[in-house]
Structures are given as structure tokens and as C-alpha cells.
């Protein structure tokens, strides 16, 4: 009997099975690139046949090469050739205390039990038969049949207009947001955000304005925009060198934005705007448009961006 790939739990009993098992062992151990002479191959086969005859499977030999019978780790392979490595490591699995057999045949039990190829084949067929039985679909219950029928009817029904579906989704979101309002409160509108509030009522919004201004400074940096626009125009991803340049450009823009934020906030109290940098002027325009803090962060940032663009 021949198999396409030798099972690791099987010990060979025939010559052609030994060849397959040795091939599987070399593949599992990563020795397929070893340069072996015909003499080396014969020595390896002679050594392994002894262990195959002792019912050592490929898995058992791999464990024996790595572990001692006591469970301790064996010395790792260094510059030894494969023949010496197998012979010296498997030497530890001879049972010197066994007085019933000569030393050459006295071996410890395999670290992992194996089976013959015939036993493996029978077990495989049995598992396949059991698997086929377990995979057979059970009949649907009444509830299952109803669910299947409902699904089929839904799939046959004409699809809704995507625009109507989008409007219905927006309406559902708006109703969900309105349900979160306190009794008597009215949902804010876009027009409500146009009127500026006193600074005492815009503390949270000012922090968002600084964040939005710094983000705008980074996004509008000439170096950053040039690299991104080139990649978008050419419809490709950035090369490693372009990524490094973009990372440095973003880092420089972040530093300018941080310094500009400090200058902008200081100018509000010092009223000295003659020496402000471009980044500070941009962040200051965001600070002047800080609004009520009841909006979400994303909505507030988008609204600030819109107002600054319209005023510039």
C-alpha cells in the first residue's frame, strides 16, 4: 500500500514504506537540502530501520531526537552531519537496564505510540464513514422551514430604492438622537452654531478648535500635500522612500502646529498679532469661531473647517 504523504503516526514495515517514512522524516526535520553521499544514505537507512522495527513512527523519532527518555532536552544539533546526529541522539533511547535482551535490541518504548499502515488505513476509513454520517443534514423543524420560507420570500422581493433606504436610515438616526434629549430641550441646528458665544461658554469648544486648527496646519502643509496628491494622481501606494519623506514632513508640520497653537492662545491675551506665524494665524481663525460644546467632536471639527474655508 502506498500513500501520497506518509503519516507521522505510522511506522513502516516494508522496504518501499521505509523510503517514504525516511522522506517524511527529512521533510519534517528540515533536512531536504542536506548533501548526502550514497554511503551516508545507506547509513541513515540502516540506523532508522532498527527504530522502525522497534515500532518507532516518524513522530516518535522526531521526539526522541529532541528529548531524552527522562523528558529532558537533548543537545541541539550543531555542526554534525545527519548520520552522526541521528546515531548519537538515538543512542540515548537504548535501554541499558533491560537484561532480557542484548544491548543492540534493548530499546525504550517509543515516546509516542505508533501503528502500522494497515491499522492507520482502517482507522482512516472508519473516521471517514463516521464523518459522513455526522455531516448528513438533519430535517428542518417547522420553525426552521418557516424561517427558510421567509428568507426566500425576502430574497425574491424587489429591492428598495437606495435613496429611500438612505433617507430612512438618516431618519432613524435622527429619531434615535432626539430620544436622547432632556425633556423640554430642542435639538441644535446648524444656524445655532453660527452665533459666537462668550469665551466662558466655549472652553470645551476652544480645545476642539485648537485641535482642528493644528490638524488643518498639518493637512495643508505644502510638502505633505505634494506627496499625497502625487500618489493619488498616480493611483498608487507610497514607496518606502516617499513614506519616510512624508513621515518627516508630518513630524515637522506637527511641530509648527504646536508652536502656532501656543502663539495663537498667547496673542488672545497679549493682543500682539504682528509677529504671528502662518500656523498661528490659521489656528487663531479656528479659535475665533469656537462654538457651543453640545456638538460631537467630528461635527464640531467639520463645522469649524467649513467656516474657516468660507471666510478665507
Automatic annotation (TrEMBL):
Residues 158-169 have a biased composition (Basic and acidic residues). Residues 132-169 are annotated as: Disordered. It comes from the Bacteria. This is Uncharacterized protein.
